[in-house]
């Protein structure tokens, strides 16, 4: 990562975990925006690649449409590239890592910066809540803006407020693909909670049902509460390694 004069030891690394539709993207944007941190959302990067018709987009599209994970090597290369262009005091990873191999690859990259994952925010919500959110989600095929017909509807029916394009449901938000994505989360990604606990990262759980504002308050409280204990987590981790 390009750190210029900044010391990489002061770089904060926050990983967001939780099933699709739980609100990681919305809350990740808020956390990053409030602190001036960089948000790296692999799903967003992939959708940009698909829209742009790049080689990566072409290779990723069929996995995404089927609700399957894009192969680790493509994802890790994409994240390395995103990190190389980042210059911020903190990075919020949203939708990455999703497998143990990706988590190990992230550890390796961060080892090079002498910077472990500090905190993991786990968003929790009952499955019916998540399914309803995904069924209401609409996004703009032109600029990528995201809305929700139940929770955050656009001012003008089904039109993007930013660029005026007609909104669409993401192809992977169709009910059958949603079921597969949730199963993939349970099988491949949920075990990362235990992975990070073993590594001594601070794992914080946030109830993700409720409005954006309610969840935002819980996130703030969780991150605020733990600011001072990050040093303790680091020394715990030092004992582990
Ligand atoms: P998301 O927007 O995070 O829900 O991601 C949408 C889709 O992109 C996922 O269902 C996967 O097909 C793919 N994807 C996003 N991030 C990853 C990742 N870290 N590893 C593998 N596939 C991913």
Can you give a write-up of this model?
- With about 240 residues, the chain is α/β, with parallel strands linked by helices.
- It has one domain: Rossmann fold (3-Layer(aba) Sandwich), CATH 3.40.50.
- It is built from 10 helices and 7 strands.
- It has a 5-stranded parallel beta sheet, with helices on both faces. It has a two-stranded antiparallel sheet with strand order 5-6.
- The chain is globular, with a radius of gyration of 18 Å.
- Bound molecules: adenosine monophosphate.
- The site of adenosine monophosphate (AMP) has 17 residues, from helix 2 and helix 3.
List the helices and strands and how they pair.
Elements: E1 12-17, H1 24-35, E2 38-41, H2 42-52, H3 55-66, H4 72-84, E3 90-94, H5 100-112, E4 119-124, H6 127-136, E5 137-139, E6 146-148, H7 175-189, H8 191-199, E7 202-207, H9 212-226, H10 230-240
Parallel strand pairs: 1-3, 1-4, 2-3, 4-7
Antiparallel strand pairs: 5-6
Helix pairs in contact: 1-9, 2-3, 4-5
The structure holds adenosine monophosphate (AMP).
Adenosine monophosphate binds next to helix 2 and helix 3.
């Amino acid at each position: 990562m390009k750190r210029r004069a900044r010391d990489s030891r002061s770089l904060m690394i926050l990983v967001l975990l939780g099933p699709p539709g739980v609100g990681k993207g919305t809350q990740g944007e808020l956390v990053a925006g409030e602190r001036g941190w960089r948000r790296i959302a692999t799903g967003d990067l992939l959708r940009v690649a698909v829209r742009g018709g790049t080689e990566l987009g072409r290779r990723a599209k069929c996995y995404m449409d089927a609700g399957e994970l894009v192969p680790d090597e493509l994802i890790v290369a994409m994240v390395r590239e995103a990190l190389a262009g980042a210059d911020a005091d903190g990075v919020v990873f949203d939708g990455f890592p999703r497998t143990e191999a990706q988590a190990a690859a992230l550890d390796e990259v961060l080892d090079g910066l002498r910077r472990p994952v500090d905190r993991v925010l786990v968003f929790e919500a009952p499955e019916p809540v998540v399914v309803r959110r995904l069924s209401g989600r609409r996004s703009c095929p032109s600029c990528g803006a995201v809305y929700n017909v139940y929770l955050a509807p656009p001012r003008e029916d089904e039109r993007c407020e930013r660029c005026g394009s007609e909104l669409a449901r993401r192809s992977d938000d169709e009910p059958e693909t949603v079921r597969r994505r949730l199963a993939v989360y349970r099988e491949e990604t949920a075990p990362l909670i235990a992975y990070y606990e073993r590594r001594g990262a601070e794992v914080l759980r946030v109830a993700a049902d409720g409005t954006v504002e309610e969840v935002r308050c819980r996130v703030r409280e969780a991150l605020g509460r733990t600011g001072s204990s990050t040093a303790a987590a680091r020394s715990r981790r030092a004992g582990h390694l």
